[in-house]
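Reading group handout, session on sequence-to-structure problems. Before we discuss, look at one worked example. The prompt was deliberately terse, the way you'd type it at a terminal:

> structure Protein phosphatase

The input record follows.
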Amino acid sequence: MALTAGARTTVRVVTQRRQPTRSLWTTSFFAQQVEPRSERRERPRSREPQVGLATPAPEEAAKKKSQSPFYFEAGYAGWAKRPSRPFPPPFFSPPSGSFSDPLSTHHRSVDRRPKVDGQMIRGVTNGDDAMLASDSFIVANDGVGAWAQRERGHAPLWSRLIGHFWALAAEQDMYGREGDPDPVRYLAEAYGKTKEALSDPNEWLGTTTASAALLHYAGNEGKQHPVLYVTQLGDCRIMVVRPLKGDPEVVFATKEQWHYFDCPRQLGTNSPDTPEGNAVLDKVDIMEKDIILAMSDGVTDNLWEEEIADYAVGALREWKERFADSTDGSLAEAMKYVAQEIVLSARKIAEDPFAASPFMEKAVEEGLAIEGGKLDDISVVAAVCSRRKG
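And the output record:
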């Protein structure tokens, strides 16, 4: 049966949720812990978010023409509660005598970009999060920060590599193929390659949540419409917002997957979760000009869905009023502005110890005395669905 715009088909590989238990893996550093409020408030933090358009991809990668008549115009923004750990060798080889941060040099020199299997690692790192934006695939992954307390723990390496291999698998399978894509299989391939890359002799421990939206299409030639394949494992979230003339409409939003409060499903060291067993796939018919958001829980723990939709559409309208005449008509810059405004709005709540927030609401439901927002890495990839010309 054909889907109407905004309808969704959910493929759930697992039929029952694992009950919250305090087994060995949950009591280890695998589980996210709620930090004391005083510690979370006093850390020195950067003042401005990092922003950009399409995230870096290998310059030597083959330029393949997509079969899809639709594409993403995308931008991203991120704010980290603390600086990311530098990537270790062999993923990064600093010049002799250099102590610069390898994660901030992707725009300066190809040779200084992090690499795996001889290829530049796609995406960008934001604290423990990773973001990726291309013309058909957007990703937001959240590495579990508690691994920073473990020797050889490196959550941002896990979140970034999962995103890299996930995008690579999707790209290799999608271009030139017919039939439906299989993002869960792509994630499974990415997970396998990440585990292989981070095993002996280059063993690094960590876990990450994962979320992505892949843009595809359905229908016959001349009557094609865009279809979004959304994959989620954990508490990063994907949202589709339709910018109507009145109030914006939240067409679709994923739901968080938790083992128990503040401990999401995740992939990596000691975790029982797997893409095949726990990833949720949603197939969503969308429309041109819909806004698609991939967000870490630093956004959704501090802003409610309706607020996110309002900020997204409000930022788009403001950008069109202020900057549209000075651009070439591309909406990528607008999406960067949308992502930045959502990040700044979430950060305002995150740093306010007295603000009402979704995280506080969930904590109260669990009987926990937590007030204010949740200080965390805040990552947003914003994309608008556009039709190719010609």
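Points for discussion. First: The mean pLDDT is 84. Second: The domain at 23-387 is CATH 3.60.40.10 (Phosphatase 2c; domain 1).
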